[in-house]
From TrEMBL, chain A:
Signal peptide: none annotated. Keywords: Cell membrane, Membrane, Transmembrane, Transmembrane helix, Transport. This is Inner membrane ABC transporter permease protein YcjP. The lineage of its organism: Bacteria, Pseudomonadati, Pseudomonadota, Alphaproteobacteria, Hyphomicrobiales. It is a multi-pass membrane protein. It comes from Pseudovibrio axinellae. InterPro entries: BP-dep_ABC_trans_perm, MetI-like, MetI-like_sf. The keyword Membrane applies. It comes from the Bacteria. It is found in: Cell membrane. GO terms for biological process: transmembrane transport. Gene3D superfamilies: MetI-like. PANTHER family: INNER MEMBRANE ABC TRANSPORTER PERMEASE PROTEIN YCJP, MALTOSE TRANSPORT SYSTEM PERMEASE-RELATED. Pfam families: BPD_transp_1.
UniProtKB/TrEMBL annotation, chain B:
It comes from Pseudovibrio axinellae. GO terms for biological process: transmembrane transport. The lineage of its organism: Bacteria, Pseudomonadati, Pseudomonadota, Alphaproteobacteria, Hyphomicrobiales. Residues 1-20 are annotated as: Disordered. This is Inner membrane ABC transporter permease protein YcjO. It is a multi-pass membrane protein. The keyword Cell inner membrane does not apply.
Length: 280, 321
């Protein structure tokens, strides 16, 4: 009926989808193909679409070229997880307050929180740099975790608030009637019910933290031991030549964890993210 | 909230002696909703005050000094005067706006096209929807390393493909020339931002009531007509929202340009954010960098006000969106 497409129409749609997804996926495809080729084959001009020697050798060699690679990957994970934990610590109580209570200054303060989303860390780097230097936090994990979490708190509050608002209030009221304190109610009644929402918010914060490590890492940290992967990958760019195949292999390894997480949770994530922004 | 709040507020000890009454009031205050709510919000608020609000104020202060790595002293509005009289800076500003205009228009247009495609009832759309996401969730820096390789003149696939079909006669380094570097950066920025815009527009399209389409279909309206007269007006709030958010994000976009070109060649891709970063962090001229940051923040505030105004208008016209 209405949703039926004639055959040429269908073909046209599929061609358009192919072009669209082609653009989106081209870098990943080429990253993967590059990671499979030996370096000499990459440096052939004119460009060759096919190589006669595909192998996973780069995935083995990259650990030797950049011996710190495992450390960088671990750093990336550690920083993102810490950012998530720290951010949630601030997000949960505030989101609960905004979801449940009416008070003076509610919408204004929420607006101010959301206004933080407008800034990127890039404009505040100077004072942040001085702040971190004064407290001796430059070149530590803290330099990447503390500012990193701050910029994700508003988004988290907004997402979690939308979720909490959907939890029926009656349960809390019942707990309250039984003489439970507010904090006890929050901890024992609300949070367990909010677990799915907390997971969505936690994963969204984690993914964002993982995606945005670069700026704070290159600005506030110059110690290799604490470098996260996106900054550490730059080491494949040598003085003489760039080991593109290994760099791409490391990139693939670096994006794999987030892709896997996303694959498992994508339905909830997309629903959670778009609901928070589109409704209300 | 009204009745529920009443029930959630068991004031105790409202009767009794004067000292007891005072205690009761204190208890009431502690238990009152507003106080409890603010206590819950306080940690987040204090944290953001330290990491965002204070640095913002400090940036404004620094912009009136000649702060550098050695020290600082007050120099009035000299930094701003220097900026406003600098031709290079006005070029940077207009370049930034051109960059924003191009990137945001492409994101919105292709986001709309993409969302329409992904909304079409064709087999495989669940997978297509998933395949749109990667640029959104992958670290921006890593995606940009991929693009860096794609744009390589001798060994990259784009130059290779264009040579193969005969558009280019020889290798072309996309990031080495002013114009091509600029447009290459725009394309990468679109690539990073497109998935999110697409997904939000798709979500909005899915929310359009089906009976609208059915009624139009029965009346013999063509697909294009239905798209124009039903889909577009129905998702207009989301189009507006995404446009303004894209403006803000594109304006703030740092990593993409920094990894691809570091603002070069010959400043061809130096946007306000890149200029600020270069001045402050690469050259340690904190004062001059701060003045640029203040200008960036002021422009962002204007965009934000437009955003709030738009949201308000949307709410008024379309009800709860």
């Amino acid at each position: 009926m209405m949703d039926r497409y004639s055959l040429p129409h269908k073909v046209f749609l599929y061609i358009c989808v192919a072009i669209f997804l082609g653009f989106i996926l081209l870098p990943f495809f080429e990253m993967f193909m590059t990671s499979l080729r030996p370096l000499e084959h990459l440096f052939r001009s004119p460009y060759q679409f096919w190589s006669d020697d595909f192998s996973f050798r780069a995935y083995a060699q990259m650990w030797e070229t950049v011996p710190m690679l495992p450390r960088y990957i671990a750093n990336s994970m550690f920083i993102s997880l810490s950012v998530t934990a720290l951010a949630l610590l601030f997000i949960i109580p505030a989101a609960y307050a905004y979801a449940r209570f009416d008070f003076k200054g509610k919408s204004i303060s929420l607006g101010i929180f959301l206004a933080v989303n407008m800034f990127s860390g890039a404009v505040l780097l100077i004072p942040l740099y001085k702040l971190l230097r004064n407290y001796g936090l430059l070149n530590t994990y803290f330099a990447m975790i503390v500012p990193g979490a701050a910029f994700l708190v508003p988004m988290g509050i907004w997402l979690l608030k939308s979720y909490l608002e959907k939890i029926p209030r009656e349960l809390e009221e019942a707990a309250f009637m039984d003489g439970a304190s507010r904090l006890y109610t929050l901890r024992r009644v609300v949070l367990p019910l909010a677990v799915p929402g907390l997971i969505v918010v936690g994963v969204a914060v984690f993914l964002s933290a993982y995606a945005q490590q670069f700026l704070f890492a290159i600005t506030f940290n110059s110690v290799k031991d604490y470098m996260p992967l996106p900054a550490g990958i730059l080491e494949f760019i040598g003085y003489q030549s760039v080991k593109w195949n290994e760099m791409m292999a490391a990139s693939i390894v670096g994006i794999l964890p987030v892709l896997v997480i996303f694959l498992f949770l994508q339905r909830y994530l997309v629903a959670g993210l778009t609901a928070g922004a589109i409704k209300e | 909230m009204t009745t529920a709040s009443g029930e959630l507020l068991p004031y105790e000890g409202a009767s009794g002696g004067s000292t007891k009454q005072k205690q009761g009031m204190l208890k009431g205050l502690l238990r009152s909703q507003a106080f409890f709510a603010w206590m819950l919000i306080a940690p987040a608020a204090l944290y953001l005050m330290m990491i965002v609000a204070w640095p913002l104020v400090e940036t404004i202060r620094l912009s009136f000094t000649n702060a550098n790595i050695g020290g600082e002293s007050y120099i009035g509005t000299a930094n701003y005067e220097k900026l406003l009289s600098s031709r290079k800076f006005s070029q940077t500003v207009s370049r930034t706006f051109y960059w924003m205009f191009l990137s945001v228009s492409f994101k919105i247009i292709f986001g709309l096209i993409g969302a329409t495609l992904l909304n079409a009832a064709i087999p495989g759309r669940a997978i297509f929807r998933m395949l749109v996401m990667p640029p959104w969730i992958v670290p921006i820096a890593i995606g940009c390393f991929g693009w860096l390789w794609l744009y390589n003149g001798h060994f990259g696939i784009i130059s290779g493909m264009l040579q193969y079909v005969g558009i280019l006669d020889g290798p072309f380094e996309f990031l080495a020339y002013k114009n091509s570097a600029f447009y290459s950066a725009v394309i990468t920025d679109v690539w990073v931002g497109l998935p999110m815009v697409t997904i939000f527009m798709l979500a909005a399209m899915q929310g359009v009531p089906r009976d609208l389409y059915e009624a139009a279909y029965v009346d013999g309206a063509s697909r294009w007509y239905r798209f124009r007269r039903i889909t577009i007006p129905q998702i207009l709030p989301v189009i507006i929202t995404m446009s303004i958010l894209s403006i803000i994000w594109t304006f703030n976009s740092f990593e993409i340009i920094w990894i691809l070109t570091e603002g070069g060649p010959r400043s061809a891709t130096t946007t306000l954010i890149i200029d600020t970063y270069k001045m402050a962090i690469a050259n340690f001229k904190f004062g001059q960098g701060a003045a640029r940051a203040v200008i960036v923040v002021s422009l962002l505030s204007v965009f934000s006000l437009v955003y709030l105004f738009a949201l308000h208008q949307i709410k008024k016209r379309f009800g709860a969106v």
